[in-house]
Amino acid sequence: MLSSFSKWRYFRPVVIVGAVALVVGGAGSAWLLGEGFVRLQEDLKTGAGFERAESTARVAEQLLLRNLDDMVTLRLLAQQWVLLDDVADAVLRRQMETTLRHLVRDRGERRTPFRSVVILGPDGHMRWSSIPDSMQFQASDRDYFIALRDGFRGTFLTAPIVGRGTGGTIILAAQRLHDAAGDFGGVVLVGLRPEELRRALAPLAEREGDVVAVIRRQGDALIRAHVGPQAGGVPIAGPVPAGGDPWTTELDENGEYTARGRNPFTQAETLRAGRLVADTNLAVFVAVDTQSELRGIPALRNSIRMSVLGGLLAGLLAVAGGVAISRARRLKVEASALRKGRGQVERLHGGLPVVLFLRESLGPRGPSRLLYRGGAIDLVTGWPDGRLAGMADWTPYMAEGTPWIDDSIADALAHGSTEYDWQLRQPDGSYRRMSTVLVRVSVHPNGGGEVVGYTRDVSAQYEASRRAEQARVELDQTLAAAPVVVFRGSAQPDGTFRKTFVSTGMERLTGWPMATINQPGGLRSILDNPERLAADMAALMAEGEVSGDYTMRCRDGRLITVAVTMAVMHRGTDGRTEVVGYIADVTAEREAKARAITSARLASLGEMSAGLAHELKQPLQAITLAATNTQSAVERGDTAAASQRLQRIIGYAKRAAEVIEHLRRFARGPEIGGEPQPVPVKAAIEGAQSLVASSLRDAMVELVVTLGDPPPVVLGHLVALEQVLANLIMNARDAVVQTAAEGPRRIDVSAVADAAAGLVSITIADTGGGLPDAVLARLFQPFVSTKGADLGTGLGLSICHGLVTGMGGTISAANEGPGAVFRITLPAATAA
Q1: How far is CA 548 from CA 460, 522, 529, 539, 541, in A?
Q2: Contact 452, 371 (CB under 8 A)
Q3: Spatial contact of 770 and 750, defined as CB atoms under 8 Å apart
Q4: Is the pLDDT of residue 540 over 90?
């Protein structure tokens, strides 16, 4: 018979199993209810976590786009630079280059996100760089160049690289340029500071374990901002595999995605969100630590479980023991992985051109201690003997005035980050310029905290900035000494012009102090004809470039003639137009030109003097004869005959007076600079004909005039047109006399109006055999003549060209038929 102990031994498992089944059954029901409640709370907080990750991704996208929008001015200037290819645009192009360098230059404590600007031609070769003495390179095989050349219309960003001219780490932002025809005209590269973008993204990582990162669609990470020590191993969606990842597929289809996954480095579960950045090759990646978002859920779950499993204490202790053993084993594995990971991180830091460090402050203004330092210390500091490596104290090697590290850490803890420049002594006694950036990692309850930072060598960048400033000073000195005055301003939508810069050469030109010139309306006040400015500005807005002569009053009362040339540099979306131009003193040139015109006119009068004497002698002889006959008729008492002869005397006197009037008007010359007036072509031809008629008769040259019905009327100056026609007719007479001894001696003058074009064409054709080809190509240049040295100065046709263009017309010459043909085209006058 079995003993009671044996019976219990046999029945104990049944009792235990029954009791466990009874307890577990009741506990199971309570467990399921508790788990359902916890799961509901967990889903609500998980949704909130995804929403925070998505909103952070949207904000990060907007921050990136805002930083990239700052490139608009640089691209517009680079675009204008590409379109300015003429030598005449060299001054404007240099002004644009100075502006580009100015925009990427730091101004004291105010730092720009840009480090450099480079313009590439359509063949990939570097055409210009904001960094002086930059090494030439060829980029036609680079991914950004190929993408933009093949039609990518947005901003293409490259992986971080070491800048060729700056020596620091930069990210290149590339945008497409077009040529004058609208085709691919090259690429503008803007070097972005990764630290500036990282600083902009850092505030978005709010909580422990948060990660905000920017990745390229090509698969590599650009920028990463995080909170918490584990973020060094936070995985970002790495290179896209051949088969594609679910998240990349969702990004391509929807432009955004959300997912929940586990960090393979820290085993921490994260809530992830991603967005494509519009018009770029970038995507924003945000990871939110699940444990941080679900804070409180584990406590709720544990309290429910502890209540439910209170009766199963023995089992829970066993499970707790197993969990403790498992946890110890897992912690051991994690410690080994962390040691291995730290070694890899230190090897990575050793290849970076910066010194990374972590310091801890023991109070709000208390001392700090160095926790970690790594990176290319020997390379950055210039001490290859290793004395500054590891945890060595750098204080003895710092120049006087270097900010105390504890004060800088306090500023970083108070404001989130800080940056300052200082100098580090070198082995040879010189000093290297350094830059240190500090970023807050955590804040302790006592006011202290941890700060991570990096130090880099900015000597090359500082030297480049110094040279750029020196170049700017040299440019100002050059403009001050230049023989022209350079100015810049903006034309407002209402047609007014506001100057923003006038070179100091204006004071030397006019004697007015720069304080007077620079005040509002100062430049306009010294113009003798400022009302022309509005008309010239309207022409500038329509044509893009305008040039004309102005009269300017000097401080000593003199009036000088200046040539003002203006060109459009940039048209803004707000209606304002940026204008650049220059002012040149052309007083001596204009006076010399006027003297040349007068000399040529008087020379022509000299050539026509014999014929003019004949023109006056003929009516004087007729008047003498008629007067004699009148006296005889009076003596006879024949009043009718006397009256008839007196009428004849009056007609001959009018004819002589007309010849003298034409001669006086021709000798006086045209009114240079006056507004064009309606001029009947018939009157101009008759005036010229009265001056050359005797010369043509003496040379037995026939002049045939053909005018339309009604004869056309042009806009110009009567005397100037008479001088041009007389000069061309006399030249044609000389050519006919020299070459047509046996042939016909004929000059045809005709005028035809083109109503559709609003022009009148005046043609002078002769039978003189034409012009030599060698002379025809430079016919209107000064001192070019087919006559002998004793028959002309060679200035006549050059002056004719100046007079015609001064009236807004053109003049050309060609060989047609039996001789040369000169064509003058002038604007037609309206019926009014």
Answers
A1: 46, 20, 12, 11, 15
A2: no
A3: no
A4: no
d(CA 235, CA 223): 13
Task: Please report how many Cα atoms fall inside a 13 Å half-sphere around the Cα of residue 408, on the Cβ side.
Answer: 19
What gap in Å lies between CA 276 and CA 64, rounded to an integer? 11
The alpha helices in 187-289, defined as continuous H runs, are: 194-201, 246-254
DSSP string, 181-193: TSSEEEEEEEEE-
In the numeric block, the tokens 């679910």 are attached to 246
Rounded Cα distance between 196 and 65, Å, is 14
Residues in the chain, total: 832
Residue 646 makes CB contacts below 8 A (sequence gap 6+) with 626, 630
Give tens-digit pLDDT for 549-564: 888 888 888 888 888 8
Q: Is 195 exposed, middle or buried (0-12, 13-18, 19+ CB in 10 A)?
A: buried
Indicate if the pLDDT at residue 606 is higher than 60. no
Identify residue 156 by its one-letter amino acid code.
Answer: F
Crossing angle of helices 718-739 and 587-636, rounded to 10° = 80
pLDDT confidence of residue 760? 93
**pLDDT over threshold 70, residue 484:** yes
The model's pLDDT over 6-63, given as tens digits with 9 standing for 90+, comes to 454 555 555 555 655 665 666 667 667 777 777 787 788 788 888 888 888 888 888 8
What is the residue-wise DSSP string for 416-427?
Answer: SEEEEEEEEE-T
Which DSSP letter does residue 481 get? H
Q: What is the SS3 assignment for 667-705?
A: HHCCCCCCCCEEEEHHHHHHHHHHHHHHHHHHCCCEEEE
Cα 715 to Cα 809: distance, rounded to the nearest angstrom: 9
* pLDDT at position 376: 84
> What was the pLDDT predicted at 795?
65
Please check the confidence at residue 603 and state whether its pLDDT lies above 80.
Answer: no
pTM above 0.85, yes or no: no
Residue 187's pLDDT is: 94
User: What span, in angstroms and rounded, lies between the C-alpha atoms of 390 and 368?
Assistant: 17
Q: Could you tell me the pLDDT band of residue 242, with boundaries at 50, 70 and 90?
A: very low
- What was the pLDDT predicted at 789? 47
The structure tokens listed for 813 are 């010459």
* CA–CA separation, 508 and 505 (whole Å): 5
The residue ranking higher by pLDDT, 298 or 763, is: 763
Q: Which residue has the higher pLDDT, 787 or 429?
A: 429
Q: Confirm if 211 and 266 have CB atoms less than 8 A apart.
A: no
For residues 755 and 828, the answer to whether their CB atoms sit within 8 Å is: yes
In angstroms, rounded to a whole number, what is the distance separating the alpha carbons of residues 747 and 819? 10
Distance CA 822, CA 812 (A): 6
Per DSSP, 399 falls in state: P
Q: Side by side, which strands form the sheet with 256-262? A: 221-226, 211-216, 282-289, 269-276, 256-262
Gap between the Cα atoms of 583 and 503, Å rounded = 10
Q: Give the single-character DSSP code of 354.
A: S
Q: Which of 794, 803, 706 is nearest to 753 (CA)?
A: 706
Mention every residue, 6+ apart, whose C-beta is less than 8 A from residue 382: 424, 426, 427, 432, 457
